[in-house]
Amino acid sequence: MRKLLLSIAALTLAAFTPNAYAVLNIELTQGIAAAIPIAVVPFSQGANASSTDVAAVIHNDLANSGQFNVADNGSFNQYPQSADQVNTSYWQGKNVDDIVIGNVQSIGGGQYKVTFSLISLFNQAPNNVLLTQQYTVSQNELRRVGHHISDLVYQQLTGIPGIFSTRLAYILVQRNPDQTAKYMLMVADEDGYNARPILISSQPIMSPSWSPDGKQIAYVSFESYLPQIYVSNVATGQRRLITSFSGINGAPEWSPDGKQLAVALSRGSANPNIYTLNLASGSLQQVTNDWSINTEPTWSPDGQTILFTSDRGGSPQVYEINMATKATQRVTFNGNYNASASFTPDAQNIVLLSRQNNAYDIAFLNLQSGNLQLLTHGGNNQSPSIAPNGKMVVYATKASGKNVLAMVSTDGKVNMQLPDQLGDVQEPAWSPFIS
Q1: Contact present, 403 and 418 (Cβ < 8 Å)
Q2: 303 shares its domain with 377
Q3: How far apart are the C-alpha atoms of 202 and 14, rounded to whole Å?
């Protein structure tokens, strides 16, 4: 990690609005062959209709997941609003297994009542209704309700919690030959909407990491000659300095209980070691203690162990250390470069960056069998971050000469890209589930 010799010119957030930033446009490049056939019927709307199309949000969420084959709205001419209006034979003839119906009604005072039902065309439940819910929300909460409905539908039909209400943090870099580069710590909805900056700087920002409650982000900023670790409030942008030791301050990662950060610090020595920092007291505990490069700490879901990257064996590999005993074991053995590892939520696997055949690929390692599966195949990929349901990984890659974000399922069957038209996108971090 390099020191910067130029002073920072921090830019104020007040000069920018969320509308100044393009969304991350999801482009599904591969879905599963046996995707679930479903129709999302346009929701009925009465007077004072909202500009937010809730059914379109649900349609796009399910279609972009790669798990669903969502019928084109132009392929049908029936628009039921309740379960008793569903013509089962008609929809079975459209080769769909389930349909989502609903309505959005203005009830005054800027409030809307949203009702939806998920109907199975083959289930023997009363009226074939698998789910039905009603919500009262404001105009600016309608997209959020759409994502929530998508989560419910996804879980009902796949048995896995949906991630459409989660968020992504990432670094957006804008470079202009006649101007200083601009670095922005961005936060966006999982589908790329509502992108807004948490921090804007003329110097690099790195390594965003979400707190377990999704309310804060830790990151590295180079605004004072040296890298420093900050924590920012996602809602307000208010931030505080966490570490400013001499040398490297890097790779912050929250503990599962949100009370500590694992960090990589050199503290004036040649190489960094792993430390844990108590956020309430500010006390440090050294975890590794040698002359190797030790970095990229990530906690196990139970907080009992930490994965980290070290070159102590001659090349970067992933190691695991027990926080109680400090017993350390090497985890990766395939190839001469493995790094940036994190546990799946069940702690049975890890997702990591692995160099194979001179390419940096996203990989999935089963800890019991030792089997390493490549999820990507060739290219210059980096910074994998796993979704809180353990089924998707977001990472940074290069496509058509531009840095973009991409997603791949942990079985390698679903792929998509998320380019931003206003700059290069890098270092993504997937949020936890957000209530």
Answers
A1: no
A2: yes
A3: 16
